[in-house]
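## retry 2 of 3
previous attempt timed out at serialization; input unchanged, resubmitting
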Amino acid sequence: MDKDSTELNPFCASIILFVGRIWDAITDPTVGFLVSRSPWTRCGRMMPWTILSTPLAVISYFLIWVVPPVENGKVVWYLIFYCLFQSLQTCFHVPYSAMTMFISSEQKERDSATAYRMTIEVLGTVIGTAIQGQIVGGANAPCVNYTYSLNGSIIQMSPKVNASHISLDDTKQAYMVASGVISAIYVVCAIVLFLGVREQKDLTCLKGERLTFLEGLQLLQRHGPYVKLVMGFLFTSLAFMLLEGNFALFITYTLGFRDDFQNILLVIMLSGTLTIPLWQMFLTRFGKKTAVYIGISWAVPFMILVVCVKSNLILSYVVALAAGISVAAAFLLPWSMLPDVVDDFKVKNPNSQGHEAIFYSFYVFFTKFASGISLGVSTLCLHFAGYMTRGCVQPDSVHLTLKMLVSAAPVSLIILGLLIFKSYPINEKRRQKNWSQLQALLQDSSEHDSDSSDSRSSV
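## retry succeeded, writing output
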């Protein structure tokens, strides 16, 4: 495919993604604070944020894939709409996640709601990936064979590759069609959320003083269980993001299964989706910390095996299946532990209330932060290893780097994350104690309000 003036320089694309991650670092806690200070409405406190942000998020997402008519303003165009979409997505995701705290006060019901939410989120990822792959896949140019000089430098590309049948306009149109379809799904899901979920007012809120943003942030930083949970979640999620982000390249180049990598990635996502209900039953039976240890460490032997054994397609599918099972545990279980941390915080700080959205906003931020770190580390490592974009083959240094990114690095991060989870103090006994104390505090607060109301009536 000939170089076209509408193509964006890879360096500029990296700058846009980097600035977008920095912008995320600002918007996530800010939106969490604003949501926590929002008044209750007939639709609840969280629901207006999700509904009002949806149409704007859809428009900004679609405009990300539109090629602007001006040459010099492309970077500004993409930077503005990328950051805008990230902000609006935060306005949806933070209250959507925190809504778990406002639909029930029962721990089992919250855990069940979290499991359903994570199942649908993973299923949505599968559907989105399938749609994007089917629409865009046919418009991608084939790989390129490179010719080398005696000293190893690239001197030209093989003239045998001719992608004239795939024009740049075809590629642009395919991406716009895919973004339109995904935008429509986004709107449908928001409508289902609005029609199907109802918040219960002041379900978990104790009567107390509303703190400023900095005061609330200091309280969160001093709450040990939350810090340990977030750090453990950060390292384990980074491990699986490194695995997922580089597994396709590992399968394509190092293992040589170019025609099978899409099916292998689909196995990862499907196995993750289908096993989330099983992990939910497991944590109910054996406890959340036990489920974390077993679920997250499940894929470690397979990560090691896939780089030690000679290329084997069946083994690749087995590793993909095991990875999907662990991915489900790595994301479901820490999310299911977050309501317990919020309850623990409420018991320890009964005079402070309304911080649920801030807890969830930092969790969302660290999820995005892990994704950004994974993308940055992978890009830099492959760049210095000599990775060639769209190359049919890659040098040995790239194969070694990919092995490190899908095996050694994730395994090390998983071990570090599990060590942090070991120091996480909220077990089932403390969880039940916190729940009982919180119910007593809520009852006392309700009785106090009732007595105050009766006194005013008598006067």
